[in-house]
Amino acid sequence: MFDFRRIFGLDSGSKKTAKERLRLVLIHDRTTISQETLEDMKRDLIAVISKYIDIDVSDLEFRMEAQDEKVALVASIPIAENKEVIKGA
Amino acid sequence: MSGKAVVITSGKGGVGKTTTTANLGVALALEGKSVVLLDADIGLRNLDVVLGLENRIVYDIVNVIDGMVDFRKALIKDKRVEGLYLLPAAQTRDKDAVSPEQMRKLIEDIKAEFDYVLIDCPAGIEQGFLNAIVGADEAVVVVTPEVSSVRDADRVVGLLDKKGEIPIENISMLVNRIRMDMVRKKEMLDVSDIEELLRIKVLGVIPDDESVIVSTNKGEPVVLNGKNHLAQAYRDAAGRILGREIPFEEKHQGFVGTVLRFFGLAE
Questions:
Q1: What is the pTM of this model?
Q2: For a tag on chain A, would you pick the N or C end, based on fewer CB atoms within 10 A?
Q3: Which among B46, B54, B59 has a CA at the least distance from the CA of B106?
Q4: DSSP B134
Q5: What ipTM was reported for this prediction?
């Protein structure tokens, strides 16, 4: 039986998935920072930020991300709840 | 005279490096160029069988590098095409039998007397790869429209560029085994997708075709006798190596193409 959605190009097909996956993999591959260095940097950053505010380390996100044609270091650092967070105020 | 050395590489194995080397070599020789095909895959010799020259081997590349024979004496002349020669790999030695410096010297020597040296690179990115790229002026990265192949190709491009051996503008890719029926159904990466991902220029686009298997069975590269679209695709790629501006083949022509284009199934 004909798959009309596919024939008329309405179904995006697996190539879109392949391309999207490759885009991310290549960005990761091209980034010369090793996982080890990334972990070291993460630890140092936590130490610095913790000097000023209490952060929730368990929910911390830290990764390389594709943004258009550039690679960005994206960090999501949640502030700890129910605490007097601003230390030096 | 100083010729040009072109390494045919890929990172991933089994994407068609040897077949590509053989066909580009034949196509360049048919253009009147003198061409040496150098099998750098020491220990896993294959270019000889793809070319159908396996019964004529006397000396190999390691014999030349060890100084046992002059490289001219080790060359096997292809009797089917004027100007085409093979320098076979050693089968019983390993990749450490040759050093990068020896390889560079050998390629320089060949370039002094021939128009082109096409180097068939082994798979992987270890010593054999480093030996194969060291004397090359240009690189052709063979890539198939699959995630693993594209990823490895990107890694190879990065290595070529990083080592400063081959500047990025001298690196091109040959997209191998593309299936237009699958591309149309959006189930296969198209040339433009791979171009966008790898960001290097396209040297050629070779359709997936079972005649390649038949020709390898016989040891006769398709370019030798073929007047079909496959042979033409290799000849076009060879023409681009020579610096010609050759448009990429129209996928569909005539009435069928008109109908397909009407339904948005062809370009």
A1: 0.80
A2: N
A3: B59
A4: T
A5: 0.83
